[in-house]
Amino acid sequence: MGCSTKLLLALFFASSLLIQGILGEIVCEDLPTDVCAFTISSSGKRCLLENQVGNNGETEYQCRTSEVVVERMAEYMETDECVSACGVDRNSVGISSDSLLEPQFTAKLCSPACYQNCPNIVDLYFNLAAGEGVFLPDLCEAQRTNPHRSMLVILSSGAAEASVPAAPAPAPM
Question: May I ask which residue range the UniProt record assigns to the signal sequence (predicted)?
Answer without folding.
Answer: 1-24
